[in-house]
């Protein structure tokens, strides 16, 4: 059967991208803001580190220059005092050298610092040193040491020089504190920026979640379609939008669905046709056999009576096989899966019990029915087949004058049916095999009709389609009878009944 695939829409859509493209795009969109945040954070940290390193270097250099400046000032002042006492030309030369060093240091200090006030103080300091060299020392060389006009102005100049140095030190300390404060503020600002950039993480997770949904949503739809095919539902068209790979899988599943649906219809039609063709002559054979067996057309001798008994048993067996074949057709009929309605379990059981009334009466069985007033939303025909097969097995394996107990329990919107008999039970080794097609366990005593081995297979398959379960609860001593537990979903208590 050819499958016609509708032409694809070539308009761009993110859903139409391949899984590989979607994965790469999602990874890129998730990684891009993280990479941007990482680069930005690294640049900010690098800028802060460079700024801090530069500030620390300037502070250290200014501090070293200040220490050298103070040292040369003390040497200059000591040289001046010694020269005034000793009048040694070498001391005068040392005085000149120290003043030159101080001028060089002030030039370096002015170049290092960018602060106008500090530069002004350093300039003032340098001018004061130059005044000491140009005006005070020449006068001191020409006059006696005791002259107050020489000694006192020199002391005043050096005192003013120390005062200016203290002002330079104070301003330098202020600048150092300002640098430290700026570094702290920059670090705090960077910390705030990094904390704000953490919002990128939930945004990235959101983007990742969106792409996960884009990739997995079509897969979930495909999984649901495959599960419906597994249950035998071939009526609903499989149509999934998504990446090209997903659409290819959907087209393949749709082609398989159409093929399976055609085969399903052919199987159902064949089984219905052959069952009808078998039942028509079988009815005539059964009626003729009954007439012979009842001596309605003349007395039969012992051998003829035995032969008619064999024919009668074989006819009943053939009739049971045809009934099982019709039940199996219900399993194959996927259209019946959609026929769900509310089913009263107690009423359905009574209908099944009525159909088996002759079998129950023949073996003089007692039915203890304590079903609760519950209902399930399911397929009436299929649930009836399930209960009928379990009940017929209980009747078949029960001893004469035995008791069959039927109970129910409603738990979490699920109804559990328990059907117990007093038959020979099922050995533990056989409890899994009984659901295999055509498997037949030990036959019950005094049973004239042999089963087909399809009954429990049909029950298992139907319950699988109905999302139900079946379980064998035989006692440790399996010869004490068998209890079959059937679980059906979508159950509820009937209103006004307890």
From TrEMBL:
Molecular function via GO: phosphorelay sensor kinase activity
Assigned keywords, A-Z: Kinase, Membrane, Phosphoprotein, Transferase, Transmembrane, Transmembrane helix, Two-component regulatory system
PANTHER family per the UniProt record, alphabetical: HISTIDINE KINASE 1, TWO-COMPONENT HISTIDINE KINASE
Enzyme Commission no: 2.7.13.3
Pfam family, one: HAMP
Compartments where located: Membrane
Positions of the Histidine kinase domain: 273-492
Protein name per its UniProtKB record: histidine kinase
Primary enzyme class: transferase
Transmembrane stretches, start-end: 22-42, 198-219
Family matches, as InterPro entries: HAMP_dom, HATPase_C_sf, HATPase_dom, His_kinase_dom, HisK_dim/P_dom, HisK_dim/P_sf, Sensor_HK_Regulatory, Sig_transdc_His_kin-like_C
Record's signal peptide: none
């Amino acid at each position: 059967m050819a499958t016609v695939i509708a032409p694809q829409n070539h308009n761009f859509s993110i859903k139409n991208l391949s899984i590989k493209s979607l994965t790469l795009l999602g990874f890129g969109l998730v990684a891009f803001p993280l990479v941007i945040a990482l680069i930005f954070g690294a640049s900010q940290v690098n800028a802060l580190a460079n700024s801090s390193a530069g500030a620390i270097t300037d502070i250290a250099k200014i501090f070293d220059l200040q220490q050298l400046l103070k040292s040369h000032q003390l040497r200059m002042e000591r040289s001046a005092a010694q020269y005034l006492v000793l009048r040694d030309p070498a001391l005068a030369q040392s005085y000149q050298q120290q003043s030159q060093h101080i001028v060089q240091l002030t030039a370096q200090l002015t170049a290092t610092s960018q602060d106008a006030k500090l530069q002004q103080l350093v300039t003032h300091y340098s001018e004061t040193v130059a005044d000491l060299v140009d005006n005070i020392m020449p006068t001191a060389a020409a006059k006696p040491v005791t002259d107050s006009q020489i000694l006192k102005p020199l002391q005043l100049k050096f005192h003013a020089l120390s005062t200016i140095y203290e002002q330079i030190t104070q301003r330098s300390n202020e600048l150092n504190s300002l640098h430290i404060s700026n570094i702290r503020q920059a670090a705090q600002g960077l910390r705030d920026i990094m904390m704000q950039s953490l919002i990128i993480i939930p945004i990235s997770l959101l983007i990742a979640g969106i792409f996960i949904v884009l990739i997995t949503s079509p897969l979930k739809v495909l999984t649901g379609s495959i599960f419906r095919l597994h249950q035998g539902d071939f009526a609903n068209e499989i149509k999934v939008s998504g990446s090209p790979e997903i659409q290819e899988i959907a087209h393949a599943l749709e082609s398989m669905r159409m093929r399976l649906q055609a085969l399903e219809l052919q199987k159902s039609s064949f089984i219905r046709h052959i069952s009808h063709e078998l039942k028509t002559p079988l009815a005539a054979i059964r009626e003729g056999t009954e007439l012979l067996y009842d001596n309605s057309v003349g007395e039969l001798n012992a051998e003829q009576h035995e032969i008619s008994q064999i024919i009668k048993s074989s006819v009943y067996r053939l009739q049971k096989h045809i009934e099982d074949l019709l039940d199996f057709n219900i399993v194959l009929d996927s259209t019946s899966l959609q026929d769900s309605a509310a089913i009263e379990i107690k009423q359905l059981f009574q209908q099944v019990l009525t159909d088996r009334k002759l079998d129950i009466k023949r073996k003089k069985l007692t039915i203890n029915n304590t079903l609760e007033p519950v209902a399930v939303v399911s397929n009436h025909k299929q649930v009836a087949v399930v209960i009928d097969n379990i009940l017929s097995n209980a009747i078949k394996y029960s001893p004469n004058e035995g008791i069959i107990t039927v109970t129910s329990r409603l738990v979490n919107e699920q109804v559990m049916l328990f059907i117990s008999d007093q038959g020979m039970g099922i050995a533990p080794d056989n409890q899994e095999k009984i659901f295999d097609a055509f498997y037949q366990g030990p036959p019950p005593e005094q049973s004239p009709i042999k089963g087909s081995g399809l009954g429990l297979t049909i029950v298992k398959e139907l319950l699988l389609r109905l999302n139900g379960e079946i379980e064998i609860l035989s006692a440790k001593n399996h010869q004490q009878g068998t209890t079959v537990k059937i679980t059906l979903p979508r159950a509820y208590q009937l209103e006004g009944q307890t």
